[in-house]
Design goal:
Elements (H helix, E strand, L loop, with lengths): L2 H27 L6 H7 L5 H8 L9 H8 L4 E7 L2 E10 L5 E8 L2 E6 L1
Helix pairs in contact: 2-3
């Protein structure tokens, strides 16, 4: 095997490893897919429209942390702070190829108050 064939063989091996890692990572970070029926079972107080919104990955002001997690999945990071006004949380979501997009959800005392896309 000459130098060129050795180099090509090694490059293809590294490419295969990188491709496998990307596939495994994308599966590992994919948000859980919940059906409307599963959402209804977890949140019986919600309307059918709200359950469909969660299943579609939507968020709205006033939803709880648990509802947002059912909609977007678990955040990659949660920054918490507590003061005299209550508990504040910033949930960080990194999505897309190589985490190219970062989104934030902001909660006060357990309820969604704003987001940054």
């Amino acid at each position: 095997m000459n130098y060129y064939e050795q180099y090509l063989s090694q490059a293809l091996s590294w490419f295969a490893v990188a491709l496998l890692a990307c596939v495994l990572l994308s599966v590992a970070i994919a948000p859980p897919v919940m059906t409307v029926v599963e959402i209804r079972g977890q949140f019986p107080e919600l309307s059918d429209e709200q359950c469909q919104q969660i299943a579609g990955g939507q968020v709205w002001l006033g939803m709880t942390y648990e509802m947002a997690e059912a909609s977007w999945g678990k955040p990659v990071d949660v920054n918490l702070s507590v003061d005299v006004w209550g508990q504040h949380a910033q949930c960080v979501y990194r999505i897309g190829d190589y985490y190219s997009t970062t989104k934030y959800l902001y909660f006060e005392n357990g309820y969604l108050t704003s987001w940054q896309l």
